[in-house]
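Final paragraph of the annual report: two paired records, presented back to back.
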Amino acid sequence: MERERFEELVAEALEGLPQEFQQKLENIAIVVEDWPSPEQLASVGFRHRGDLLGLYEGIPLTKRGRRMSMVLPDKITIFQKPIERVYRSDREIMRGIGETVRHEIAHHFGISDKRLKEIEQKKSNQGG
């Protein structure tokens, strides 16, 4: 998929978020890269670059104090090539981008991977 189209899909995923979440996405950069760097992989304990679809780098909102103004923006990186390897068709890629964007934004709001797995498990058990 062309980078421009991929970036459009990332923007659409962000626009599809509920308004209350969109309003709290201040001071956060969302970028698209082909692959994660070795440093990014190491930061989350991954070895294979194809395994990391997205990465949140920053201080979650739940851990911020009052003195958190005047700081560099948090960063969410969406990795195009790993997503394209996992999700093959355009429709699947769209779904994968949406899932990845929501997952990384959840980290921005202080939700851990463990809690995200619990939420997904509960959701699948309820048939939704």
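The closing record of the year follows.
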Amino acid sequence: MPSAIDLDDLSVRRGETLALDGVCACLPAAAVTAVVGGNGAGKSTLLDVLAGVLRPTSGCVDGLCGRTVAYVPQRSAVPDHLPLTIADTIAMGRWRERGPWRRLRAADRALVAAAAEQLGLTDLLAAPLSAVSGGQRQRALLAQGLVARADVLLVDEPTAGVDAATRLAVLQALATEAERGAVVVHATHEAAAVDRADAVLALSAGRVEVPAGAPGAAA
């Protein structure tokens, strides 16, 4: 059985701000954990630490060593002018295994096609990334994360600003990743995404809060 990731008294300082303050939590494998909290709560900082973008100021993260990580940022973090199609964007998820300049194998192309179908992007594969809607672009980035087949999938606000059908497809995709054994962690403001999660980690001002009645609340 894949192991969980444990946060042990994790603190991160961004300049003068203590963005995470002594966070202790367990992020289970083969499960979806929703990280919730208001703006400035520390959600994106936590994802950055798990992705290796930020180093903890103190404390540690146990269980990441030797595991592959796929990180899907918010769509606002992706430049609009990138000369990429939807298919190119999704295929980048295979670069870790294949390298950026090697031709995709049939198995890689099958993963790209399956992820596109799962997220309703099949008819848009030839479209430029810059020409599609924000929700379609976010789905393309999520598909990129899915085809990486990583041990850990991190997603920042995957359902923000999308319609109900897209939200359902995105949440089902996260659940499918968990079913194959991945640690899936996503930051969200949306109640529907929290309801579909297996565990909830609530943050407030960089500290852990456990909301009353949250399903499988992590602490």
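Residues 6 and 26 are 5 Å apart (CA to CA). This concludes the annual technical report; the extension proposal builds directly on these records.
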